[in-house]
């Protein structure tokens, strides 16, 4: 039995956000570690770099980049920090993070709690590891929707020097009106603003799993027009489909019940996107088979969040072992 199997009941006895804070603190201080699985066959080219493997830590776990030097030790091939906003902000009142263990799901309405772009940039300027790094950018709550382009641009300018890629997050359900920025015109204004600042940084847009196919096509059209690197599909869902036990909590749902929605959004994007467009698959990846399925559906890379919370520090190694085996069996 690994240490996480012993520690998990204690961590899960705490409220979910306190457990998250303690866990992240332990990771940042190097008090805990995970198993690594190295296999040259899993090396992947992305954002102009060679990644050890295609599994990344999804945005929202290390919002403020406090553990950025530690993620390679848990086997991740890349890590996405954020969401970071221009202004520091506290997020929604607690409690705002809820585990649904019977369904291996999480509901959250964090609301982009983060230290703000300046503080995160200062922290990143002191980083030591060179794990491939994405910066996920969001709109500050106090910034009106029409002024979103300047808000994203400020954070991008501050954080871009440390990033291998940047993400325009317009898909969190927890900032009022944010998802309307997935519409063609507002999205175009945001991404063109970033392009004008720096045309060399690979840019992604992160979409919601609740978009219709025609709305996904609109995002693709903007992505092609603006020469974006790709799309991250998906964020959390407002749907409660697949839960065996009802939950009254508001917010975005992640984990196992999200898998079918996130998979079908990715499949649609792969069918419609030009072949060179990079797709990062995220949502409900709970094991190596899910990762294999997502990559067969056309994801160039995948990310995990909820699976890692339930699976623990050896999760990435286990997933990679299964992925390598499934690929060899093909
Ligand atoms: C507690 C929590 C906080 C999150 N915060 C962010 C965030 O700040 N920015 C973002 O783009 N996605 C955020 N996400 C979404 C994840 O990055 C991911 O897209 C989603 O959880 C689906 O993946 P999963 O099923 O593997 O968890 C968050 C998810 C959770 C559970």
Characterize the structure shown.
The chain has 330 residues and is α/β, with parallel strands linked by helices. The chain has one domain: Aldolase class I (TIM Barrel). Helices cover 35% and strands 17% of the residues. The protein has an eight-stranded parallel β-barrel with strand order 3-4-7-8-9-10-12-13, surrounded by five helices. Strands 5-6-11 form a three-stranded antiparallel sheet, with no helix packed on it. A two-stranded antiparallel sheet has the order 1-2. Helix 5 packs parallel to helix 6 and helix 8 crosses helix 10. The protein is globular, with a radius of gyration of 18 Å. It binds flavin mononucleotide. Flavin mononucleotide binds next to strand 4, strand 6, strand 11 and helix 9.
């Amino acid at each position: 039995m690994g240490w996480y199997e012993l520690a998990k009941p204690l961590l899960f006895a705490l409220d979910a956000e306190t457990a998250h804070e303690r866990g992240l603190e332990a990771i940042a201080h190097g008090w805990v570690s995970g198993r690594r699985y190295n296999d040259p066959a899993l090396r992947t080219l992305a954002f102009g770099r060679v990644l050890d493997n295609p599994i990344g830590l999804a945005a929202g776990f290390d919002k403020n980049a406090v553990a950025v030097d530690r993620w390679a030790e848990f086997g991740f091939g890349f890590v996405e920090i954020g969401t970071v906003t221009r202004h520091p902000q506290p997020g929604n009142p607690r409690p705002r993070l809820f585990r649904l263990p019977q369904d291996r799901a999480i509901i959250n309405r964090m609301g982009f709690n983060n230290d703000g772009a300046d503080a995160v940039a200062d922290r990143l300027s002191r980083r030591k590891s060179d794990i491939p790094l994405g910066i996920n950018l969001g709109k500050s709550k106090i910034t009106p929707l029409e002024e979103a382009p300047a808000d994203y641009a400020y954070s991008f300018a501050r954080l871009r020097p440390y990033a291998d890629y940047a993400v325009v997050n317009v898909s969190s359900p927890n900032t009022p009106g944010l998802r309307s920025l997935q519409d063609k015109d507002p999205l175009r204004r945001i991404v063109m603003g970033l392009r004008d600042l720096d045309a060399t940084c690979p840019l992604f847009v992160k979409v919601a799993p609740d978009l219709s196919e025609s709305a996904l096509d609109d995002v693709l059209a903007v992505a092609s027009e603006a020469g974006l690197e790709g799309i991250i599909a998906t964020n959390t869902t407002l749907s409660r489909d697949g839960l065996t036990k009802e939950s009254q909590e508001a917010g975005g749902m992640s984990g196992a019940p999200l898998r079918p929605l996130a998979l079908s959004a990715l499949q649609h994007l792969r069918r419609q996107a030009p072949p060179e467009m990079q797709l990062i698959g995220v949502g409900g990846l709970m094991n190596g088979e899910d990762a294999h399925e997502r990559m067969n559906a056309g994801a160039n890379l995948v990310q995990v969040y909820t699976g890692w919370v339930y699976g623990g520090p050896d999760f990435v190694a286990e997933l990679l072992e299964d992925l390598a085996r499934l690929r060899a069996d093909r």
